[in-house]
């Protein structure tokens, strides 16, 4: 086996192990970052008058992870609360609340002045940025690689 073949084999093994760490070992840290982001960017942003919150975004088990190469996509597939839905004639769709929250679209009662226009409150991408920018992602990645036998300083 040539030196180049050995290098390519080692790089493929490292890439596979990094993916394994990201997809398995880092989920808890990412979920904590999502919960913290939801708490500060969503729940602390305002107090609704028209509906009562279920606080589902503060439950880490509500986040779903989809592995991608050298990364992970996160979503929060929680639907709107039908208890506070406007009449069907309004066109209300109890879609994923993460879309409603992150874009600011989907609050039909705002048109009748019963609540404030809160606008978009992106929390998923911002939570991931927090996880990376605080250094927590690097710590979790290093810990996962150490657990797989790598020497990481």
Summary of the model, kept short:
By secondary structure, this protein is mainly alpha-helical.
Annotate the secondary structure layout.
Layout: H1 3-25, H2 27-43, E1 64-68, E2 71-75, H3 97-103, H4 124-133, H5 136-147
Antiparallel strand pairs: 1-2
Helix pairs in contact: 1-5, 2-4
What does this structure look like?
There is one protein chain. The chain has 153 residues and is mainly alpha-helical. The protein has one domain (3-147). Helix content is 45%, strand content 7%. It contains 5 helices and 2 strands. It has helices at residues 3-25, 27-43, 97-103, 124-133, 136-147; strands spanning 64-68, 71-75. Strands 1-2 form a two-stranded antiparallel ribbon. Helix 1 crosses helix 5 (136-147) and helix 2 packs across helix 4. The chain is elongated, with a radius of gyration of 20 Å. The mean pLDDT is 87.
